[in-house]
Design brief:
Rossmann fold; 41% helix; two-stranded parallel sheet; 291 residues; globular; 6-stranded parallel sheet; 17% strand; alpha/beta; 10 helices
């Protein structure tokens, strides 16, 4: 299998660059080699590599900054996936793409399924949803994995922010009224690889019949506040200064972009389709901390 991986320096892309290696030849590129904001850059690299699978682990993920940079967010999150899908169709290739819980507005109180109506609250969610639709409209073999609260050992994410702040401050104030599921980047990479392994060397044929849109997260639910307490209890740091973690409301921590208050994704479909038993978010956190 020949795989073109985009976003190799990102938190999910870095994990994929290692996880995908057993499947065949992995050509991994970063923004300096393929700029998702430049359509010609996308076409040139894809046609040069001519992969069987394109795995797009790159995105515009600055949720708040997207409110000030809607055009750039659109070019990277909507237009680029559409061009990738066009190129995949030319090559009879498959496309793997990652999306987000932010396509929902958070007004439900039961886990969102793949068929629930979307209603993004901000530019980031709007451009990611439009990217999903662009891929689906192209009619190519594809796998869109919606996930949530992604974190890992590298990049900008909640885990690393909490570990840094715990060194700098004696108390932390963390939002306790947003509910979701933390999902580590290494888990996403491993599960993506397991799905592609099931294709037995024919990813386009496999995803033509078994692909589509799936929700992929760990199981269980939590809040940012309880996730913080779990991070601090499972990690050790001799330089840690924090003594107390206080719960606060979203209103007490205003941000340029609104967040969904409830963004739990229902993962029954992906578990049934591919035979997975997904870990709890606590198990996945413990696994990542131990590595």
């Amino acid at each position: 299998m020949k795989i073109l991986l985009l976003g190799k320096q990102g938190q999910v892309g870095h994990e994929l660059s290692r996880a995908l290696l057993p499947l065949g030849e992995v050509v991994a590129v970063d923004r300096s080699q393929l700029d998702l904001a430049e359509p010609e850059s996308i076409r040139t690299v894809v046609q040069f590599v001519r992969p069987q699978v394109i795995v797009n682990a790159a995105a515009y993920t600055a949720v708040d900054r997207a409110e000030q940079e809607p055009e750039l967010a659109y070019r990277i999150n909507t237009l680029a996936p559409e061009i990738l899908a066009q190129q995949a169709r030319l090559l009879n290739a498959a496309l793997v793409h990652y999306s987000t819980d932010y396509v929902f507005d958070g007004t439900q109180r039961v886990p969102y399924t793949e068929t629930d109506p979307t209603s993004p609250l901000g530019i980031y969610g709007q451009t990611k949803r439009a990217g999903e639709e662009a891929i689906q409209a192209m009619g190519i073999p594809h796998l869109i994995l919606r996930t949530s609260w992604v974190y890992g050992r590298r990049g900008k994410n909640f885990l690393l922010t909490i570990l840094r702040l715990a060194r700098e401050r004696t108390e932390l104030k963390i939002v306790a009224d947003q509910v979701g599921i933390p999902t580590p980047s290494n888990f996403l990479a491993q599960t993506t690889t397991q799905i592609l392994q099931q294709s037995q060397g024919d990813p386009a044929g496999f995803l033509q019949t078994q692909g589509g849109l799936y929700h992929l997260t760990c199981t269980g639910v939590t809040t940012w506040y309880d996730f913080t307490r779990a991070i601090l209890s499972q990690t050790q740091d001799p330089e840690r200064q924090v003594q107390t973690v206080y719960p606060i409301t979203t209103d007490q921590y205003p941000t340029p972009a609104r967040r969904p208050a409830y963004s739990v994704l229902n993962t029954e479909r992906i578990q049934a389709q591919f035979g997975f038993t997904l870990p709890t978010w606590q198990e996945a956190l413990a696994d990542l901390v131990a590595t």
